[in-house]
Write a structure and sequence with these properties.
The chain is α/β, with parallel strands linked by helices and 171 residues long. 41% of the residues lie in helices and 14% in strands. The chain has a five-stranded parallel sheet with strand order 1-7-5-2-4. Helix 2 packs across helix 6. The termini are far apart.
């Protein structure tokens, strides 16, 4: 009987302890609800901002357009779209974006690993839901950049029209 009573008391206290633990784990610098809300908004915005390879090439050649590669510096150095600038995803901050793209109305084109097949060394594929394009688009949108376009298709790296080059330090 005492055991049953102890179990019932423990079961009654668990929600109280869980609620107290949740309050202690609050971090005002991390906002999951805000992230999910803005991710949904960015996803809707993104639908009309996906480009074919031809469209990407045309816009990339226009003055004032920035082609942003958010892969690691190591992967960027191996091979990247000619003219692209590298800002590795973990380094995207208010300050780094203000330095690289001070005008939030600048046209920004993005691409990632999952846009190229048959080039695993420089463009290792990720799971579709973990594609760097998604994270980069949402992040740029969150920071107020709305003139962002994404390379849409999966392109055979051996047949792409996009000129790709290694960084000079790797050549």
């Amino acid at each position: 009987m005492k055991r049953i009573l102890a179990v019932m008391i423990a079961a009654a206290l668990i929600p109280a302890f869980a609620a107290q633990a949740e309050r202690k784990l609050v971090n005002p610098a991390i906002d999951m609800d805000g992230f999910l809300r803005i991710s949904k908004e960015a996803a809707e915005h993104r639908q009309s901002r996906r480009l074919t390879e031809e469209q990407f090439l045309k816009l990339a050649s226009e003055p004032g357009t920035i082609v942003l590669d958010a892969r690691s510096k190591a992967k960027f150095d191996l091979l990247h779209v000619k003219g692209a600038v590298n800002l590795s995803f973990p380094d995207i901050t208010v300050e780094s974006l203000a330095r690289l793209i001070p005008d939030r109305t600048t046209r920004v084109l993005i691409y990632c690993n999952n846009n190229f097949s048959d080039e695993e060394r420089a463009f290792p594929s990720k799971l579709p839901a973990a594609s760097l394009n998604l994270s980069t688009y949402i992040s740029l949108y969150t920071y107020g950049y709305r003139n962002v376009y994404e390379l849409g298709p999966l392109i055979d790296a051996k047949r792409t029209m996009l000129p790709r080059v290694p960084s000079k330090s790797v050549e």
